[in-house]
Amino acid sequence: MIKMLLLLIISGLGLIPSSSSQSLSQGVAKLSLALSANLEKGSKKNFVWSPFSAHSAFSQVLLGSSDSTRTQLENALGISSEETINYQRLQSSLKQGQSTLKVGNLMAIAAGFKPKPEYSQQIQSRFGSEILELDFATNKAGSVEKMNTYIADLTLKVTLIK
After folding, report:
1. What is the per-residue pLDDT for 11?
2. d(Cα 144, Cα 138) in Å, to the nearest integer?
3. Which of 30, 113, 160, 161 could make an SS bond with 78 (beta carbons 3.0 to 4.6 A apart)?
4. Which residues, other chains included, contact 67 with Cβ-Cβ below 8 Å and sequence gap of 6+?
């Protein structure tokens, strides 16, 4: 059975400084190899996944972590929390060129939860993430609809969850 893997390699694009792009590219590749092996185990179906998206999501979690959790995430992602700034550089570089990368980052948080302002600012500036407070407990369908609408508007009407 053939497995499919969607991988974005950015090191050779020349869009961001080589040391920056190299660390980000190596981090994405490291996570990709680690997760691909586990995703393929026992699977009899083809699948497509985006290591870039997974790395980006876990990198946002990294920014909000500390102590041993931060160390573990940095090891798994192959980048430090400071190096997450390279996502911002990549997106800025893509906007200047003729390439298009549609990325939708949404930090969906439970109603009443308030992330630290510094964290909110970092995920917004580095990843272009929006923060949306949703009521998963009493309005699951409405919360899913809001997430799908947000992502669809950014990605040519692609939806995530049914």
Report:
1. 38
2. 12
3. 30
4. none
Helix and strand numbers (H, E) in the chain are 6, 2
Average pLDDT, the chain: 82
Q: What are the residues whose beta carbons fall under 8 Å from the beta carbon of 18, sequence distance 6 or more? A: 11
Encoded tokens for 136: 């998963």
Q: Which of 86, 80, 93 lies closest to 20, judged by CA?
A: 86
Closest listed residue to residue 126, CA positions, set 86, 88, 94? 88
- For residue 1, pLDDT over 90 is answered with no
* Burial of 21 (C-beta count, 10 Å sphere; 0-12/13-18/19+): buried
List, for residues 27-71, the tens digit of each pLDDT value: 998 998 888 888 878 777 877 788 888 999 999 999 999 999 999
